[in-house]
Every structure is written in C-alpha cells, then in structure tokens.
Amino acid sequence: MTLGTHGAVGAAIVGSAVVHPAIALLLAFFSHFVLDALPHYDYKILSLDKLAEKNGVVKMLGGKLFYFDLLRIGFDGLVGLVLAWFVWQVAGAEVGLLWVLLGAVLGMLPDFLQFLYGKIGTGPLAIIQWFHNRTHTKYKLADKFELGVISQATLIIFVFIGLAMI
C-alpha cells in the first residue's frame, strides 16, 4: 500500500472517535499490517540492494537513487497527511486535528521503520521488520498502476463509509 492509503485509513480510524483516541492510535498503527495483508500496488523502491533483497534482507543503497526514493516517499507521506486533514474537515471528527494527523503518522509508521531498518539493519527494528514481512501479502499488483490506484482509492472510500456508519 502507499503511504497515502495508510495515512488516510489511520486518520479515519482516529477521526471516527469510536473508541478512546489512545486506543484508536494503536488501531491506526496496526491497521498498516492489516492493509498490507491485502493484495495491492507498491511503487518500487529504486535504492533497494537487490542482492541483499534476494536473501530476504532489506538494505538501502546510498546515492542519487536513495535521495530520489526519499523524495517520492516524502511526497507519498505528505499525501497521507493531506488526506488526514481532509478526513478531519469532511468527517467533522470529534477529536482534534493533531489526533487525526497522529493517526495518519502511526498508520504510515511501519513503512518508515522498514525504510529505517534498511539503513540501520539491527535492533528492535528487526522484530518489526520480521512482523511486517510475515503479514505482508506475497501477491502484488506490481505492474498494474491504474488498478493499484483504483483499488486503494476504493478501499479508502469503503473504510470512510464503514467508519461513518459505526
């Protein structure tokens, strides 16, 4: 899933005010793994070390590709925050904007930790990386950009409607 989708869903969970905001923040974080279990489109991270990846290790190379990936990931994260703001505005969330934005950030956080693990590669991040890999679907819509965008937009809409009905 893209960060925009993870951010929008995390924000919607917190903004729905179905449970206490602190519990909603935990749900926003764990929603990331649930969403990644679904078949979906991910854009390619160009600075991944392909040799390390074949051995099941996430390792990032440096250089221009790394900075290009950083820009793309940053833009994608910004989309997630904009969608969170949109959720807060349209849904009339009963919690403050800061809570909703925090829900978006926590919804996106596992991918950032995965990216960080690719640079550091040890410590507690290894446990999160292991869990992330275990829950992530093996079926990807790799070369199906249009289907990926449509399916993720549809998913966001269904989550918004579902949470609004609660």
What does this structure look like?
The protein is mainly α and 166 residues long. It has one domain. Helices cover 72% and strands 0% of the residues. It contains seven helices and no strands. The two termini are 25 Å apart.
Instruction: Name the helix and strand elements from N-terminus to C-terminus, one letter apiece.
Output: HHHHHHH
Helix content: over 70%
Return the average pLDDT rounded to an integer: 84
Oligomer: single chain
Distance between the termini: 25 Å
What is the number of domains?
Answer: 1
Instruction: Report the strand count.
Output: 0
Structural class: mainly alpha
Poorly predicted segments:
none
DSSP summary: helix tally: 7
Largest sheet: none
The 3D shape can be described as: globular
Rg over CA atoms, rounded to whole Å, is 16 Å
Strand content bin: under 5%
What descriptors fit this protein?
single chain; 72% helix; globular; 166 residues; mainly alpha
Question: Helices and strands in order, then pairings?
Answer:
Elements lengths: L2 H13 L5 H16 L13 H5 L9 H28 L5 H24 L3 H12 L9 H21 L1
Helix pairs in contact: 1-2, 1-4, 1-5, 1-7, 2-5, 4-5, 5-6
